Amino acid sequence: MMRPSRRAPDELRPVSIERNVARYAEGSCLIKFGETHVLCTASLEEKPPAWLRGTGKGWVTAEYSMLPRATHERTRRESTSGKPSGRTQEIQRLVGRSLRAVVDMVRLGEKQIVIDCDVLQADGGTRTASITGGWIALNDCCRWMIERRMLAVSPIRDHVAAISCGISKGEAVLDLDYAEDSEAQTDANFVMTGAGGLVEIQGTAEGAPFSESQFIDMLALAKKGIADLVTLQKKAIA
Question: Which region is the signal sequence (predicted)?
Answer without folding.
Answer: none
